[in-house]
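During the reporting period the student researcher (J.K.) took over the structure-prediction task from the postdoctoral fellow and processed the backlog of single-chain submissions. One of the processed entries is reproduced below for the supervisory committee.
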Amino acid sequence: MARAAVATPTHEACGAAGRLRHVRYLSPQWIDAASRAVASDDRLPTALAGVTLTIEQVVEGGPEGTVRWNVVVDDGEVSLSPGPADHADLRFTTTYATAAQIASGELAAQRAFVEGRLRVGGDLSLLISHQRAVAAIDDVLAPVRADTTYE
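J.K. obtained the following structure tokens:
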């Protein structure tokens, strides 16, 4: 699988040392930062070896309108891209407010699901069989979330 091209953030999104400055959750700059984090992490190929999985996130009602982004894992290669997935194995759909609470750590995804605030579509068994892969990607995105504002 070829890696997706990863855009660099605008000058306004980076500080003098190239470190990401605060960006709004799910803005184009946030998607760029998340893409770069996933593409540049040298631990993911090992952690995701043997995994084939496509996850799409649909977030409705945010400052950017409805935002779709996807993560594609193909035997250790991973990309995070804006837009819908060609074929999602799993799809998470929620409102911006709920997604921001989950991303910021204010709300557990499991609780949002149980409360009906997070809808999950696709093959749910993949959540269990690939929970380590999902956790590895989540860990790589932690520094991006630390530099994120949730307005």
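The committee noted the following: Strands lie at 23-24, 52-62, 65-74, 77-82, 90-95, 118-122, 148-149.
J.K. will present the remaining backlog at the next meeting.
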